[in-house]
Amino acid sequence: MTSRTTRFDVLMATDCRFPGGNTSSVVEEIEAQHRAGYRTGLLHLPSPVLGKPRPFAPKLRTILDEGKAELVLGADRVEAGLLLARHPTVFSEPPRGLPQLDVDHVVLAVNQVASDDRGVMPYYDVRHVHRQIERMAGKEATWAPIGPRVRESLGHHAGTIPILPWDWENVIDVTNWRVDRPCFVADRPVIGRHSRGHWSKWPNTKADILAAYPADPRYRVRILGGTQAPAEILDRIPPNWVDLPFNSIPARDFLATIDFFVYFHHPGLIEAFGRVVLEALAAGAVVVGPRYLEPLFGDACLYGTPQDVRRHVDELYADWEGFAARSQAGVELAQKRFSYETHAERIATLIGEPSGAPATGGTSRIPVPGTGRGSRRTPWQSRSGRPDKRAGAPRSGDPEQQQPTLVVDLRWDTTDAPLLDRVVEHVTAEGVTCAVVVPAWRASQLGEQAATVPGRGSVRSRMERKARRETRGGEVAVETFPWVLAEMSAGERRQYVAHRISGLLAAHRPGRMVLVDGSAQDVRVALDAARGSGIEALRVQREIAPPMPATMGPVAGDEANVPQWPLPDGWTVARQPVSASPTTRSGPSAMARLRRKAPARVRMWARRRMSGLRQARLRLLERLAPASGVLLLEASKAELSLPVRAPITHPTPDRLPIALLVVTSTDVDAEPTLRALAERAQITAGFRPAVLAPPEWVDEAVGFGITLETMVARQQWDTAHGDGWSQYLRRRVTETSQVIHPTMVAFVDRTIDPAGAADDTGEPSAVLDLIEAARTRRRA
């Protein structure tokens, strides 16, 4: 496989699931970078703070859908002028499987102090985080406090870590947040606040809560973010309070309904910046808050304690001109120090000018190679715009045609000898259709022999395949053993091979099976799977090989009939015996038959008794094993199961349910569809993706870390076999479901575009919407 390298101007790394200020800051900076022309990549690093599966924050999903940033997926190496990370906890336990980073500068925007009075243990270890970033990025990070209180908390680390001499303050789109305020919003002062509903965001005493947010009908109090925390302290929520759930309305719309933004919180909380205060200032609300905000916001706010709130509110509500001046001062401060232009200037200071042109507004669409935008295809139209010949095309089946040959490559190493290509070439030269199943990493060795592996994303027409068949011989249909077999034990792999060969024999109905190399155990598994099929079996093996068991040697008397194939030097072909009797299951023993005749009550008593004895023995072993130095391993009658990789979503993604996407057409482009599937899996943290698709998807699936099973696409099946596609599709879906165990199966015959690149119809992406909506089971 070739290495995949992606280049960005700015690579932003954070936990995309955070619901509050962290995400708002990331979104605003991405928007500022997009408008300035900087290309932004987004690397999701799950924080241990959020241990359970949780989807990406809606704001970040929107920014990805609009194409203003690109989620980093399927890349081995990521290059960037700047790695801009947020929230130090994401580096406490970085996940495995991250791409190699090659960045010119590393800045950690520190938006949380390492410790405060709320907790006993620190939230993160500064030196440990610093080492982790250096290990991941290959260079030291410059720590950039986002406000004075964070800078103060890092003071005693000044000699051990680089600290930016100026604060990396949050930014905001002042124009978008601006609210016209020709007068007060009501006939009485309207006090409000918005934040997450966490208890740390509220004062910790009843007196302070009611002082800041009066239970007095002369004031209206509006709360966005929930009131569960104060409700646990107050006897009841005052009748003059209006409670709005978190994110129930846009924060800007909420701020337009209040005059005064009053923000007081738990005394143990150290706010790194106070983003909600900046939003209120940009919207023209007058802010009343604690004094520690003064070094950051200066004269734009009013400061004091909760007991000072009524005085500040009453004074300004009685003085419209004073209120208007204070409101305008907040807007001007936001424009001067916290605007998008400020962020673009500090990015340019670090990495220079952007690689792209400044955005002119609206959304951006990430181009997808090989796809056109703005036009729709009918269900039976190819990407070239010409009608697809499979619609109403006659089948090519011929009842007089010879039975196909099934070629099974059982070599699990990565040698690149031309053996497989020569075997397939000889079989097709006989004019016989050849069904080939190979380990996924060998699919490319078939070269031009395989109709289904012509190169990434290309589709040969029927006329091309017909011409090739006339000059070369029979058609080739390719399937693969999945990459994940390399992660399984030899016993599990053989169990899968037996399962798969049984399905191949039933689907392709070959008259001959050719086993390429493989160990004696693998060959035995394949021959056992063919018992009772009446099939002829050949083994391509090395000329100098260890003696075969008697049951595995050439068929007696057939030495003169051993085929002579033009194989590479050192290889030969030999016939292998296949038992004519199918595998039969032995009947029940005499004891089992006797047990079945016992009364139901006796059988139930016996089962309970035996279960009790087993449990007692297990408890005894658990007591004795540690002292004896014995490790107990739990064994169960587990069904065959292929490993299904999970995207980086949260600390335990391997427990998410599995969704299987079945690709039924070679018209579907692999790269954008797999990217879209991987994006949705990571964004929603709702499922693990698996795919059943044509073999040309192998390399792309490996790049995205998606478990792939393969099947022959309909176009190739019709050419090779003429009919039976529907039965074959049902069989492959059933076989794949038996080894992957999905909770949902969805079918697609059109390309699915990733976020930011979808066309206006959105029809294929509806498949992903269906998978997301069907998250009926979560085990994490």
TrEMBL record:
Region (Disordered): 350-405, 452-471, 574-594
Protein name per its UniProtKB record: Glycosyltransferase family 1 protein
Spans traversing the lipid bilayer: none
Organism of this sequence: Phytoactinopolyspora halophila
Upper lineage: Bacteria, Bacillati, Actinomycetota, Actinomycetes, Jiangellales
Gene3D superfamilies: Glycogen Phosphorylase B
Compositional bias annotation for Polar residues: 578-587
SUPFAM superfamilies: UDP-Glycosyltransferase/glycogen phosphorylase (SSF53756)
